[in-house]
Specification:
Elements (H helix, E strand, L loop, with lengths): L2 E3 L1 H17 L6 H15 L5 E6 L2 E8 L4 E8 L2 E9 L13
Parallel strand pairs: 1-5
Antiparallel strand pairs: 2-3, 3-4, 4-5
């Protein structure tokens, strides 16, 4: 199944990866490794995520990257899977998702 990242999600991944590599010297690649594993699973089992809310007329799902404590928010549509946001679970709230995501 095709998987794509929104522009927002791409920016978030870049920002998180840069910060993770700088601040987590014991495991600098942990975030990208965990994200890659989640992406691989989403391609084969897109319904695995927990239904979270509706946005843009679609059901938004999320999966937790357990080691790094980030949620991956995504939708499944006719074109495949689109990752809308990657958001820290410690924030206590989810991201705002709207038409420009």
């Amino acid at each position: 199944m095709r998987l794509r990242f929104s522009r927002r999600a791409e920016r978030e991944v870049d920002r998180i990866d840069t910060r993770w590599r700088t601040e987590r010297s014991a495991a600098p690649s942990l975030f990208t490794e965990e994200l890659a594993a989640a992406v691989s699973l989403l391609r084969t089992s897109p319904e695995m995520g927990v239904p979270n809310r509706a946005s843009r007329g679609s059901l938004v799902r999320r999966v937790l990257l357990e080691a790094t404590r980030y949620h991956v928010y995504y939708v499944v549509d006719d074109e495949g899977v689109e990752v809308l946001a990657v958001w820290s679970s410690v924030r206590g709230r989810g991201p705002r998702l709207g038409p420009a995501d």
